[in-house]
Amino acid sequence: MKSRYEAAKNVFIDSIDIDDYIELESSVNAYKQLEHSIDKPLKMILLFGKPGTGKSILLNRIAKNLKYQKEIHYFDTPATNTKEFFHKLFKVLTKKDLPSHTEVNFSALVNFCKSLRGKREIIILLDEAQMYGPDMMEKIRLLSDTRAVKFIVSLHKTENEDLIAKEHFQSRIWEVIELKNASLNDLTQYVHKKLLKRNLFEVANSIQEKDMKLMYTFTNGNYRECNKLLFTIFEICEFYDKNEPSKINYDHIPQRIIEMSALKLGYIHV
Ligand SMILES: Nc1ncnc2c1ncn2[C@@H]1O[C@H](COP(=O)(O)OP(=O)(O)OP(=O)(O)O)[C@@H](O)[C@H]1O
Ligand SMILES: [Mg+2]
Fold first, then answer.
1. How far apart (Å, rounded) are the C-alpha atoms in residues 42 and 22?
2. 107-144, pLDDT tens digit by residue?
3. Quick one: which of 153, 148, 163 has its CA closest to 44?
4. Is 65 domain-assigned?
């Protein structure tokens, strides 16, 4: 027989599938803020936050929701070469394909954008923008100056990059939206809603308030870390369920299993 924990485990595989999007207090706020900023006459908007705070899923969500109202395009992980990026941009802006061997003439593209001003407004969601070099960012800025293209630049901040990002963006802002780790309440909602969406009611009920508190101490409310922790917890539960069911309690996840998972993931050490 299949263990219920197998299904529960799979709920926490990291994904940015918008069908899995959950309305949480913090994500609803960030969404509203972003939607509002997009409507303002800004050239660029910065979406900022530590890895795993939900930037990509938010961008995907907004792209999907505004698809029929605006010219909005999501650009995922940057192409390693600039040529590929400008080809993609060229296509979005001109609605034409450029033969793959041809280089995009950047100043012609800027002029083309100038001619669009007031006629079209194209919104580009640039995910993982920490991977674009200074030259690329400068070109992106020049394009945004034409006011025909608006860029939402999503940057993931780590401790060191924090400063770089600030320096880079200070002089030319724009508006900054920061995504933070979840509160305990949001994280609890996140975990429960994810399980309930897959009809895993019993599993959801077996996670109690004190379990969530413990998980929160390990993950600090980071969604990606939380996914990893729950995946591991249910992986261990699945093992016991199949091999040593006496060690499992269906009403309640044993604290020991949460700690074993934290140990496995390196949140705690022996
Ligand atoms: N509101 C939400 N609803 C559903 N899942 C969410 C939500 N917020 C975050 N997540 C989940 O958290 C995980 C991390 O989110 P995401 O990949 O969007 O983070 P990120 O900020 O883009 O990280 P990185 O900087 O590393 O790219 C994903 O599995 C995502 O599905
Ligand atoms: Mg991301």
1. 28
2. 999 999 999 999 999 999 999 988 888 888 889 999 99
3. 153
4. yes
Residue 127 φ/ψ, nearest 5 degrees: -85, 160
Inform me whether the pLDDT recorded for 165 exceeds 90: no
Cα-to-chain-centroid distance, residue 74: 12
- Residue 231 near residue 13, CB atoms below 8 Å: yes
- Is residue 109 included in any domain, yes or no? yes
Atom 4, ligand 1: which residue's CA is nearest? 21
Six-digit token pair at 45?
A: 């908007």
Residue 75 has which token pair?
Answer: 């650009």
User: E strands, 76-133, where?
Assistant: 122-126
Same domain as 83, residue 9: no
Q: What is the pTM of this model?
A: 0.92
Among 47, 62, 222, 224, residue to substitute to test ligand 1 (most atoms within 8 Å of Cβ): 224
Using CA atoms, how far apart are residues 233 and 81, in angstroms rounded to an integer? 40
Residues spanned by the domain of 61? 25-179
Q: 179, 212, 231: which is the final residue of a domain?
A: 179
Q: Is 235 in the pocket of ligand 1 (CB under 6 A)?
A: no
Q: What's at 19, amino acid-wise?
A: D
